[in-house]
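pasting for the record
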Amino acid sequence: MLFRLILAALLGAVLLVPAGCARTQIDPQRTVRVAVLDGVINYDVAPAGEIRREGWWFSSRDRFVSPNISIQVGDELARELDRVPGVEVYSREDLIIFMARKERLLRRSFPELGDSYLRKQVLLRQDPLDYGQSLNVDYVITSRVDRASTVTNRTFSWWYSHLDATVEIWDVPRGELVYTVPYDGTGAFWSQLRLAERLARRTAREAQRHDLFRLRVP
């Protein structure tokens, strides 16, 4: 599956950059435009999610792994960054439509990628700068989820969630990664969504503290 994913990613790259696309010169007086993509999940998980039985006796537990955490991280990042003064976040609804069109094109070009979840992962692994140019935004926010789950102890009904993720901020005019925000958090009786909210708030604070969202004309 990994080989097919890498191969499709290389082949699918041609779908993302329009022919003759040039870098957009930016008016330094206008609001900074930011697009927040869904995160990439860096571990195997069923498209519908799964519950994994672990341990035994008093340590017996259910580990719920959800494929939706990557979308939740993207939604929370968009919500928090939209509150940063001078930042306009590209509509997440419009972005869903944009990605759906790319997925349909990928499906026609590579019918062997029969699973929609696999196609989406292929698209999310494309160069974020290509997306930034296509969407005509100044910055693209991506995220990588390395581990996320909710664990319930079957004996004591005690539960907690964990999220290990990294947010990346890409400067489109300069064509480079300008900042990363790592996060590794655990919360007793917390949901994965609440941890995603904390990651998003940290990202917004870091962006303001370091004045990351400035217009930089190449």
